Amino acid sequence: MNEPDLGATDPDRDPGVEEILRVRRQRGPVERSAPGPVAWFDVRRRGTGHFAFSLNRITGLGLVFYLYLHLAVLSQLLGGADAWNSFLQTATTPLFLGLDVLLVFGLLAHGLNGLRLALVGSGYVPNRQKALFWSLATFGAIILLYSAIHVFGADG
Amino acid sequence: MNGTRRFRVHRFDRDAGPATTQEFEVPVGEGTTVLEALRWIQLHRDPTLSLRHSCFHASCGTCGVRVNGKEGLACVTPVEREGGTVSVEPIANLPVLTDLVVDMAPFVERFPAPHPIVRGSEFIPGAQTPDDVEEYMRFEDCIECGLCLSACPVAATDDTYVGPAALAYAQRMLEDDRGDREALLDWADKDNAAWRCHAAFECTEACPSDVRPAQRIMALRKELRGRGKASERATTSLPATEEVG
Fold first, then answer.
1. Does the beta carbon of A2 lie under 8 angstroms from any beta carbon of chain B?
2. pTM for the full model?
3. B46-73 pLDDT, tens digit each
4. Chain B residues with CB inside 8 Å of A31's CB?
5. Nearest C-alpha neighbor of A128 from the set A49, A56, A40, A44
6. CA distances from A125 to A15, B186, B194, B238 (A)
7. Using alpha carbons only, what angle is made at residue B86 by residues B84 and B88, rounded to the nearest 5 degrees?
8. Which residues of chain A are within 8 Å of residue B115 when distances are taken between CB atoms?
9. Do B14 and A6 touch (CB under 8 A)?
10. ipTM over 0.85
11. Which of B94, B73, B79 is nearest to B26 (CA)?
């Protein structure tokens, strides 16, 4: 097969992304474990690391969504004191308090997993990623429980 | 466990349109492997079923497939471990040539050049033994089966990613102080190389040879971060016997 060298024999040659993709895809259909980014979230029969990888993406997307939601909520202030107070009444219903706890979960999961990735990815504890995951998950669960009691306690 | 099991096998013939699946009832007993079942299908039901295999004992790396979605070497994957219908698909993220056979060329060409094989260094008198390397782990431990690339969630969406095996190989070369150190680090210090890994560790989970590609990629990153600060420092090594946590 007469194909361009992608660097296997000539390390100085940089074929570029487009050429790499063209050559790699012309040989036949490529099977995927799941279509596109769905593969990121398909944790069936996968390990702890993949679960953490998926959770990080889900919580990351959730936190980005929350950022914009937060800005939208703050814009209620433009409607004056009555509009804001009306919103606060809604925000202290059990449903919204539950969403607050979900937010804390997202922050904890993303933040603590980020810490794990920093420690593992730095090469200092590459063989302890599972132990780190479960240690930080336990720590996060305690913080989440405390937060949930505080959030719902404040309401009551 | 004696009886029959239903196998759902991926079929693809580039002259016959898109890929399909075909089901077979296969007699199995205790200890029957997926490869044995596939060979039974070849011998008794459909001789056109294409699969690749050689050694039957997990050392050649040619019979890598996905069994019920999980990567494994068919020759050492027992059927009894799988529940229900046993789905057999080619490994992911590489072009399928036919049925269960993938083109390994895109896998091999990901490796940094040159691609020498580190052989039996423990038998070479006077072989280098850096202080921080407890024992040699031969590169042959990587059987180049491609399971790591198949399991990697990053490779599932990025065909430019060089993948776990090639990065593990580069780190192994650095650890053994072979090859052009700066060239290897230059090769690894790219967006589609060491920095593209997102530490899902599925490559290590899938690896049938305990190469631990993910841990090697992390060690490689450590090398890259330290680059220029202490160019003369010893290379990072992975304790060969440490349990993966």
1. no
2. 0.81
3. 999 999 999 899 888 999 999 999 999 9
4. 10, 19, 89-93, 96
5. A49
6. 35, 24, 17, 10
7. 160
8. 8
9. no
10. no
11. B79
